[in-house]
Amino acid sequence: MTQKLQTNLDQIVARYPDVPPLIILKTDVQRRGVFYSKAALELLDEAAHQTTGTHIFGARDGMIALRPESLLLRDGTSIITTPTPLDENPYLVDVKDGSPWLFDDGVALEAVDYWPAPDFYAKSSSSGVPMKNIVSARPQRLNIFPYRYCTFWNNNKGCSFCDIVSQLKKGGKELNIPAKLDPHEVGVVVGEALKEPGRFSAVFLTSGSIFSGAEPFDDEVEYYIEILKEVGKQFRTKKFPSQIIGTAFTKKQLQHLYDETGLMSYTADIEVLNEGLFDRLCPGKSEWIGYQGWKKRLVDAVDVFGPGRVNTGLVAGIELTSPHGFISEDEALQHTLSEAEDLARQGVSTVFIVWSPRPHTPLGNQKNASLDYYIRLARGLHALRVKYRLPIGYDDYRHCGNHPDSDLSRLLPY
Predict the structure, then answer these.
(1) 159: Cβ–Cβ under 8 A, 6 or more apart, which residues?
(2) Where are the chain's structural domains?
(3) 355: closest CA among 296, 295, 277?
(4) What global pTM score does this model have?
(5) Per-residue confidence (pLDDT) for residue 4, from 0 to 100
(6) Which superfamily does CATH assign the domain made up of 130-151+176-411 to?
(7) pLDDT of residue 9
(8) Do 113 and 69 meet the contact criterion of CB atoms below 8 Å apart?
(9) What per-residue string of b and e applies to 221-255 under the rule 16 or more CB within 10 Å gives b?
(10) Distance CA 337, CA 366 (A)
(11) How many CA atoms lie less than 13 Å away from 51 in the CB half-sphere?
């Protein structure tokens, strides 16, 4: 980091005393990415640490390589970040006193840890696939990526920030990751993971959209049901802590999904809270459902799952891309928070991830937003949840770790 940017980080910390400095640092690390030094990579122990491999999306440097899955800060905050080329000014992960640290412009800022590998990562399924390629983990959550393709790309109308197809091709060849998971194997691996007492607190599923079926997306719903039923066999109660990020399903489909499985929370990512930008940047979602239709289905989901059990996600920063995005960050923030409040008053939360521009995507050559913008957005979305009393415990720093705004929920007294 140059001295100017270092000063900017200090200024942001001083400007927002209500936001913990480590959350601000985390947000900036997500914004700028990381680069691992040779010494830092030498500290990586494949038996002890999680290594990169099972994402359905790629890294900012476009590579699949042996690197830490991600980082932990000293307050337990996860930094879900992406390796980034040095010429793009990322933070450096290097070694100090034998341990990994975050460095910027040669200054050691914070000690970090690599994510510890759970026990089941050392095992393989009955079909010979490494279990970590069937179910992966965040520090307190099990991740299932059942389908590593999105049918919106069939006619090249996938989302403009998405590299799911190129990552599928790389992962299948280099890492022995199945394009589509067998539900029974998923259940078996979840059972194996749960043998480590106290390690995990939730199960999470997400895939690309599947628009086939008697009604659009019926096949996606039925596939989720198959998987969740197998996962549910590992629990003593019908419902278990769980979340899906799926397509915006109809109320009938959502009710079917809820009734047939242990699913407890539902997310359908709208990606950007502006109808014109939604149509341009998410053409497949626009073609099959539309912006207003997506919002209506989110609100309908509240009737099924309950207030505070439904949310939508933003890829924050794409609303500022040229040539059609907002000109100023102030304008983007005002519009986004206004649309988010319309959802919040109807029981739907909005969370965001810090957009990481990736190669081989239509937006890959553009820049994400300023740190100040991301902190203001985090404060604004958190304030909406406080105002409308929407809990976010199923998608907070323990269960996800990818949302600076929901990290702030740990400050609440309830």
Answers:
(1) 152, 271, 281, 282, 284, 285, 315
(2) 3-114, 130-151+176-411
(3) 277
(4) 0.95
(5) 44
(6) Aldolase class I (3.20.20.70)
(7) 86
(8) no
(9) bbbbbbbbebbbebbeeeebbbbbbbbbbbeebbb
(10) 23
(11) 16
